[in-house]
Amino acid sequence: MNILISACLLGQYCRYDGKTKVYPQVQDLLGRDDIHLIPVCPEQAGGLATPRPAAERQGSRVVTANGSDVTAQYQRGAEAALYWARLFHCTKAILKEKSPSCGHGQIYDGTFSRTLTAGDGVTAELLRAEGLEIIGESDLP
Fold first, then answer.
1. How many CA atoms lie within 13 A of 114 on its CB side?
2. Gyration radius from the chain CA atoms
3. Does the global pTM surpass 0.70?
4. pLDDT digit string, tens, across residues 10-40
5. What is the C-alpha to C-alpha distance for residues 69 and 73, in angstroms, rounded to an integer?
6. 34: left (phi over 0), alpha (psi -120 to 50) or beta
7. Can you count the helices (H) and strands (E) in the chain?
8. What is the pLDDT of residues 43-77, one digit of tens each?
9. Nearest CA to 19 among 64, 51, 53, 56?
10. pLDDT tens for residues 87-100?
11. Cα–Cα distance between 66 and 55 in angstroms, integer?
């Protein structure tokens, strides 16, 4: 089974802050022969650098804390993730929670106050509309 996955969950240095985190539940998937993880960083695929200013969704727009509109880059990145999902026939995606790109169910509310609200990131929204099952890192056993 091919599963699309946020590259940052695999330890790649693509997070907005240029750092990495280890997710033991994701690392456990790497040793399984029945799963092939297809890494993608929608933000980088959309043309954003690492590190980059933090961004949050404000309705249909994605903006940085200093007010720069990065919606187009997030949309391009979502389209790239969808391309990879289709290319590899993925039916599931493991995405980074709370992200304005990959978050699902809950994302930051656009005020840069670290307040969560119901919603999906740009990529999660597009992949879900395509029929993929979206899984967050905390949903993994």
1. 0
2. 14
3. yes
4. 999 999 999 988 888 898 899 899 999 999 9
5. 9
6. alpha
7. 4, 8
8. 999 999 999 999 999 999 999 999 999 999 999 99
9. 51
10. 999 999 999 999 99
11. 9
Phi then psi dihedrals of residue 33, to 5 deg: -80, -20
What whole-number distance in Å separates Cα of residue 32 and Cα of residue 48? 32
Cα–Cα distance for residue pair 30/39, rounded to 1 Å: 12
What residues contact residue 6 under an 8 Å CB cut-off, 6+ apart? 39, 40, 41, 42, 94, 95, 96, 99, 102
122-129 vs 71-87: helix crossing angle, rounded to 10: 40
**H-helix or E-strand spanning residue 3:** strand 2-6
Phi, psi of 76 (to 5 degrees): -60, -40
Dihedral sign computed on CA atoms, order 53, 78, 12, 132? positive
**Alpha-carbon torsion 45, 48, 52, 58, what sign?**
negative
| 133 vs 135: CA distance, rounded Å | 7
